Amino acid sequence: MILAVVGILFVGTGIAFNAAASLGNDPIGIVYDGLRNALGLSAGQLGMASNIVNFALTAVVFFAGRRYVNIGTFIYILPYGTVVDLGGKLYSLLFPVQTPALQILGALIGCLSLYFGVAMFIAADIGLDPFTGVVMLIKDKAGKEYRTIKICFDIVCVITGVILGGRLGFITVATALLAGPVIQFFSERIKKYMVRAAAYQAERKVSA
Predict the structure, then answer these.
(1) What whole-number distance in Å separates Cα of residue 84 and Cα of residue 12?
(2) pLDDT value for 90
């Protein structure tokens, strides 16, 4: 539960930082930004647009692969929009002036935060976020590695986001290619740490 909640904070903050850096949205954020644009919402209402997308995708995952919807999924989607809005305010506090160097730094923080947060959700294994749930459904059907399906799925998200009017840029392309491998790397490391922590706790109980 703690891992899932912390994961939400990382993911929401990452989405907000990428949007605020104005170097292009990541593949998830560009869908949110595109829907926000299509609905005529302001930049400060990105959280509302993300809620609409997440609730819709959760419904798809629930009916197509219910095993991927658990308490963690609802822990993710309920506060998500609020976390994104707070992440945008945090970006403004940390980077009150936009310069190319600060934009790149903000986007880098955003990408790493997003991927680490998603990896935490996968490792927690109490339900997935809606986007990862869809990726896992496709992965099961296709029989391919997560990283491969993730790259293909991100490309589809980018195309959809651009059609809706989302901001496309360097970060969009970079994250579409790197998200799958980086998330898989983080997820594997977190799972190994959890196994070691569980073994250590078991040893302490035996010793006691």
Answers:
(1) 4
(2) 92
